[in-house]
Amino acid sequence: MSTRLKEGGRRIDRAKQVEFTFNGKRMSGFEGDTLAAALLANDQVMMGRSFKYHRPRGVVASGAEEPNALVNLGEGGKFEPNQRATTTEIFDGLTAASQNHWPSLDFDVGAINAKLSRFLPAGFYYKTFMFPRFAWKHLYEPIVRQSAGLGRVPKDRDADTYEHYYAFFDVVVIGGGVAGLMAAKSAGEAGAKVLLMEQTPHWGGRAPVDGGEVDGKPVEDFVAATVAALEAMGNVTLRTRMMGAGVYDHGYMLGYQRLRDHAPAAKGPRHRLWRIRAGRIVTATGAIERPLSFAGNDVPGVMLASAVRDYVVDYGVSPGDRVVVVTNNDDAYRTAIAVKAAGLSVPAILDARAGGGGALAEEAKAQGIRVLNGMGVAKVHGKKRVEGVAVCRQAGEGAVEEEIGCDVVAMSGGWSPVVHLWSHCGGKLVWNDKYAMFQPNPEASPTGADGEGFVLAAGVAAGAQTDTDFEGLGLYETLRTAVRAGTQAAAELGFKTRDVALPTVSEHDEVAMEPVWLMPQGAGAKLRMKAWLDYQNDVKVSDVQLAAREGYESVEHTKRYTTLGMATDQGKLSNINGLATLANALGEAIPQVGTTTFRPPYTPISMGAIAGEARAETFQPLRRTPMHDWHEENGAHWEPVGQWRRPYCYPRKGESHAAAVAREVMATRDSLGLLDASTLGKLVVKGPDAGKFLDMLYTNMMSTLKPGRCRYGLMCSENGFLIDDGVVARIDEDTFLCHTTTGGAERIHAHMEEWLQTEWWDWQVYVANVTEQYAQIAVVGPNARKVLEKLTDEDISAESLPFMAWKDVTLDGVNSRVYRISFSGELSYEIAVPASVGRAFWGRLLQAGEEYGVTPYGTEALHVMRAEKGFIMIGDETDGTVIPQDLGLNWAISKKKDDYLGKRAQARSFMDNPDRWQLVGLETVDGSALPDGAYAVAEGTNANGQRNVQGRVTSTYFSPTLGKGIAMGLVHKGPDRMGEVLDFPGTDGKTYKAKIVDPVFYDRDGEKQNV
Amino acid sequence: MLILDCPYCGVTAEETEFHGGGEAHLKRFGPGSSDEDFEGYLFHRENPRGVHFERWRHVNGCGKWFHVARDTATLEVFGSYSAQVTEPPQEIRDAITAKRPGWRWREFA
Amino acid sequence: MSEAVSALAGAGFDGIARVEEAGQVGMVTLRGDLDSAAMVKAVKTATDAAVPGQRAITRAGGYAVAWMSPDELLITCDHDKADAVVNSLAKSLAGAQFLAVNVSDARAVFDVSGAQARDVLAKLMPVDFSRAAFGPDIIRRSRLAQVPAAVWMSADDTFRVVCFRSVARYLFDVLCMAAQDGSEVGVLG
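Structure tokens for the assembled complex are given below, as produced in the milestone run.
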């Protein structure tokens, strides 16, 4: 059984007991435990089931690379699936549940898949669900959906908050093991501003577990002294629980800090995503131990040798009473020695190397541990728990020479440097044949903005160096390469560095490892089918070999076909073994097969951390006018227009939106309406060349506009298409004020600046965006003038302020600019007042208009009224393919100008041509409203067998003024076809018949607006 | 994510402060130009693997447009310079030549 | 009618830093040839301050002049003085090509203050707020979360943040979130 040892556990505080639940069962651990350690301490070896076959799985690793021990954590707004038990720190009240099983972890229906595994080979999905086609939707998909997927999807809104943090450092060191500490110290002592991050809560990495001495003292003391030295340095920032998630272009990198996962009751954000710009990045990310591929290597109790050692030394937890070690390298002997030292039994060490190990092997033997050289595991006995191993010769085919009873198998297939962060941004790898691993090629580091490499690897993450007498992955070599990387990083940034004296180190000499990609070497099909490469995705040696036989040569294709190295662990344990297996099957060398692409993040990060502050109310900026609060208080139904919110209508209690719109239209047409028009863009254009400039921007002639007057203008892109419209007012000889559409202010401002800065930079024009300086209110209706006259003694008569003129007027003591323009066809004034008094002024207008039944109206009433007048709306009548000529706006295109933006484009043969869809009014035969966007069908069908079309509806409303549906649309040669009736099939199955009419439905002569 | 120098502000800032504006040094063809010239102006763009000249705007900053010489494959930035020129200035060309001898881009080298 | 109000009527929040809407602030956008003698004189006349160099900010009395771009300055003053500044500039610069416009009401202004202010802003802006990089005499225009913003130091440990008025609520909300209790970063503070 697995249990807590009486003594030991560097990371736990036995004085502090922590209560938690697993699958509803109450358990306890100690402060400092990971969930995996605490589960093992409670004899919970089985922690989940596998994704595909639902095989029982136990914890394999002790860190971020764990593929099996994934749990659903928390409840409600704190629920999160797929959390690794090995990186989850326990706290009082933690609730965890295992995944991929039903109804329970112990008894799982899905485990039937394992019995069917013969029928679920590599590429199973691609092969099986192809035919018959109809079966996918009704049969396969529902089944697959039910059984697929890791974990559960959260149902509640995330209750936590998250944030970003922009940071700037000279040198960022990723990994707080002895290499990272030493690299940070070297760079820091040179004066560089350094950030050192460590993904676990602890400094020092594996070194204190692995043993050895630095300067005559235990490694632990060296770690403590180095951390203390770093903490004393003002230019060094240290963070634990922070993972280097990704390295990107130009020295950008992400650090994922888990602030509250271990203490969720504390105030503050749960995670912080550091968005870091670094001069140099040092990857001191260590190495990950590889599993060995033998039959039954996924039975709970088979673990990485280093993990077994970690649980014993770091957490005082025994994963089992009898531990068989199987290895191809010297490091795993440390596990045997540590396990033995903890008072547990090590029946045997199986060393696949015929020549066996070095000094560590001698030490193990000296402690009475039986060492069998040239031997391996033929098969693991047990289903939900290891019961024993069958021992065979590594060189053979699996003939069993001996049976050994045990409840843990500690395996080691050698080590792979963690090269992910080195590789994220294009760092290249080389294959180290002697150590059977890919390692960073320092000649091919990722390059930054200046073209220089900006990533350096340190410690075992750099692989085994050949330029040294200390070749290998030992402690001295780790410190040596770390000092070198830290010093070099600082020196490359121009810091003055000096030689750093390396501490003295005492450690065991190690004999080289020997690659073992399959155990035993000649394992037959039956064994290979039980030899797992990828635990998380249930990929076996036989699956990769099958893929190779089926013609998959590229490692990227094989990954996707077999699912090797996919999902949450991204193959941290399986990749090298998988591609070695593929290489062997293809008869190629491993470096020729290469690795799959390493992509960020290194381990999964929370969606909340990615979003940062951009969620809920602040998901995106919401723009509010000065009168926003009034609209809200008065029941506005909102319409998003770009990032603005505009009132769509103001429904009264019990009133439908349609009824509210009709009421607002009629009140405005009959008496007086108010519209918040503050969102319209307002751009001041000033300078001696302002007129010339606007002549280029608008299709109209603006330079001839008289001060005091307004003109409606159209803007086109260089491609000839309409991009914006609005009223231009000439303020004085040099100054114009250009109104844009609501969504257009920033866009058109940028458009103007672009042409001024990049084409006509010698023109004397300045532009300023004053959109938000003003609250703009449209006062509309037959009583509009009367209400304004109540607020001023100045002359605003038709003679003094005629249609399409503007005037500065003091209204109720407020400096106002009054534009007499109309988008409704009524007598109408748009009044601009400083935004700071907008809300108050709106109130004054409501008060003054009370006797006229003043009615605030929303965007829909505005739309109805403009459609009744046949006014176009950018975005309705235009869609980026419409030119002004299509909309009957020839009157707004100056014939006198040599040039304007879009003029050349509009001269192209397919534009300068009546054979186009053009604007008309549409009136249904029965008076109903046409469906929006409906197409008018024509005779015949197109190449796809669809009905030909000859036009479409661009705007459609029920007109309360006229008591019938009105619409505008673009129809092929429409203006020449007045009176024709077209068919518009709706999506409701009905066909609407509509007659082509003039687009101006109301007050064709403009008498109402010009009074 | 790139970092660029704005030649107007003098700040080195991350890409989110900027907005890319496509190819640099286009010559405008207006009314009276041939169909070929106009088509080239409006639609034809370089798409090199290597040295490229682009327009960027410091949109969340001073608002100014500027030019950047950059390697599209390695993302190395050779320099940024004024938008108010019709061809890359000599010092930018020299900086590119130092790193990419023999480079060519449109009619420039 | 004197019911002028700022966007959020001086809303405030206390967390690891204090976030407070600064109320109404006078602001004038001035565009022109910043190197010209006329400009130097006009700015001096209107504000008593010098024309600032690139990304600098100059101050005199209740006025501050901030460099916005090679041809644009932002003058801040009391809210009721902005029109006078515009008029003064117009008078001084008559005949020159320039643009001066009152933009006081187009903006919202926030003060973020306290020992943690630098870290709070660094959560939202891709800007180096370290003491070495960000001192009292500079203005930085950048992005704050998803909107453009300008920031400078108005006092020790106090940063003044300016954005468009329409996004005042958004800016306040994200600043408050960044200043929430328990969110200390401990790098710049």
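Residues 48-103 of chain B form a domain with the Folate-binding fold fold (CATH 3.30.2270.10). Residues 17 and 60 of chain B are 5 Å apart (CA to CA). Further analysis is deferred to the final report.
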